[in-house]
Amino acid sequence: MSNILIIGDIILDHYVLGDVNRVSPEAPVPILEFTEEFYKLGGAANVANNLNKSSNNVTLKGVGGFGFFKQWSALLNGKTFYSKIDLNNPAFLTKTRFASNHHYLLRLDRGSKYEQSFMNLTALEEDIESADTIIISDYCKGTITPEVVKILNRYKKYKKFIVDSKNHIDKSIYLDSFLITPNTEELKKLLKSDIVTTVLVDEFLATYNIKHLLHTMGKNGMELYFNYGTGIQVVDYAVTEQQVIDVTGAGDTVVATIADHISNGVNLDFAIKMANMNAAIACSKFGTSTI
Q1: What is the tens place of the pLDDT at every residue in 249-275?
Q2: Longest dimension (CA), the chain
Q3: Number of domains in the chain
């Protein structure tokens, strides 16, 4: 049994649902008649939730706060992954989505960043040392600080790191990674280009010594780039046909599925095929979903 460690930004996804039958007489806005509300694990916690009941040992590491702690505790009830959260902020970051009939009306964010990301760095090193595969789930919300990146990078030549990051400013987070998973807009920012070309990707892989780059393209599928010394190679993965209801958290499903499979000795090609299928299933569900 392998050990998977997830390090990243923990977010609580809050959903407020209702019916819209009329427009407000006070302003040209729809009136949402409340029917229900609920919370789901989001961000790095959604990655861990996608690994819930995995055959591997799974640990989630991040920061949070006592605000919304009741909701956080309730969401952890019955989960098989191990949570190691440093509670040193006023509250968990929360995204509230108002929706009617599977259509979003508005998103309200409570907190844009963890301002005091005082993760226990000694404990972080111990958790990395005991892990076989490490997922970095970086939504640029303050958990993955420069100090954390320095520690992570010391282990990248000895451990398999899967990096799912929105950071295109400090690219050191990608150094020596086994796999990175940018979407199209993220990849363009990394390449500093309006288009994605094999030449630019090859240069980026070489510059940061990245073994594999998985370009996730939504309804257009995925592309895997790698260069084992004989030139850049590209493998295409067609999208699995599913009705798309909500793309929220699909990227989390991708990295979780890949990590789960390669930790069990499955080759990367098959792991990506499974991730592609699972992401399509996740997109066919409303809200942050797991497989």
Answers
A1: 578 989 999 999 999 999 999 999 999
A2: 67
A3: 1
8 A C-beta contact, residue 142 and residue 9: yes
**For residue 148, which phi and psi values (nearest 5 degrees)?**
-65, -40
Give the integer Cα–Cα distance in Å for 250 and 288. 8
Residues 77-127 have pLDDT tens digits of 999 999 999 988 999 999 999 999 888 999 999 999 998 667 888 999 999
| Residue 149: CATH number of its domain | 3.40.1190.20
Contact (CB, 8 A) for 233 and 226: yes
The residue segments making up the domain with residue 60 are 3-11+41-93+112-283
> In angstroms, rounded to a whole number, what is the distance separating the alpha carbons of residues 74 and 279?
26
Pair 186, 173: CB distance under 8 Å: no
What does the DSSP 8-state code read for residue 279? H
Say what angle helices 268-283 and 250-263 make with each other, to 10 degrees: 150
Report, in this order, helix, strand and coil percent for the chain, each rounded to 5.
30, 35, 35
- pTM given for the model: 0.93
Instruction: Please tell me the distance from the alpha carbon of residue 54 to that of residue 81, in angstroms, as a whole number.
Output: 8
Q: How far is CA 290 from CA 41, 42, 149, 278, in A?
A: 10, 11, 28, 9
What is the Cα–Cα distance from 256 to 202, expressed in whole angstroms? 25
Instruction: List the strands of the sheet with 30-43, edge to edge.
Output: 30-43, 10-23, 93-100, 103-110
Instruction: Judge whether 27 lies within some domain.
Output: no
Q: Provide CB contacts within 8 A for 5, sequence distance 6+.
A: 59, 61, 127, 128, 130, 131, 133, 134, 135
Give the number of other CB atoms < 10 A from CB of residue 238: 10
Classified as helix, coil or strand, 138 is strand
